[in-house]
Write a structure and sequence with these properties.
This protein is of the alpha+beta class. It contains 4 helices and 15 strands. The chain has one domain (3-143). Helices cover 18% and strands 35% of the residues.
């Protein structure tokens, strides 16, 4: 496995191992990235984002007043996120994903945004681990279900479907664009777009 971690602020072997486990793992699952023509007919990824907050959804994310679809430019997305969340806590690249090399940038509170060839292709948001920096602003998923919600609340959410055939324990879908994982009877992770997981 050729997995490179490039931490801008402080090296953390633990974080590298976590990200290797989460991202550097077998097949890539390409999300539904709208074409530029389709993007013109879609509403912004979130009209619900407030100033000083990050709102995640199945088509991209919003950082404060700025909304980005998957396929938005890496520099623009990172600049907007940094203005809300502060400087990234780390970055790296996974060269083993079947879809091609995926770059990623980490922020506080377990948020990671993924890029390929200079464009945003996905995000995942996991429960913070010991030693993770806190978020400098509110992060939320557009809709009622949030990270850390009880399993019963997830199962009652519109579009919830446990992915029985998944080789990953507790994986579920929430409609056709959001995925996540249940662990210890709560939502431990949410994701959208292109990901690399063991399957």
């Amino acid at each position: 496995m050729n997995f490179v971690i490039e931490h801008d602020r402080g090296s953390s072997m633990r974080l590298g191992l976590i990200l290797a486990a989460m991202l550097g793992l077998a097949a890539c699952d390409s999300g539904n990235v709208p074409t530029p023509t389709e993007q013109q007919t879609l509403r912004p990824p979130s009209a619900e984002a407030e100033a000083g907050a990050v709102a995640l959804n199945g088509e991209g994310l919003s950082a404060g007043p700025e909304a980005f679809y998957f396929a938005a430019g890496k520099i623009e997305v990172e600049t907007a996120l940094e203005s809300v969340l502060g400087e990234p806590t780390g970055s790296g690249i996974n060269r083993e994903c079947g879809a091609g090399a995926i770059e990623f940038t980490d922020y506080g509170a377990g948020l990671t945004v993924s890029f390929m060839e200079g464009s945003m292709v996905g995000w995942f948001w996991r429960l913070p681990l010991d030693g993770d920096p806190p978020a400098q602003a509110e992060i939320s998923l557009v809709g009622d279900l949030q990270l850390g919600a009880p399993q019963a609340e997830a199962e009652a959410a519109d579009g919830f479907d446990l992915i029985e055939e998944s080789t990953l324990d507790g994986e579920f879908s929430l409609g056709d664009k959001i995925g996540g994982f249940l662990e210890s009877e709560q939502v431990s992770m949410l994701y959208a777009g292109t990901q690399c997981f063991f399957r």
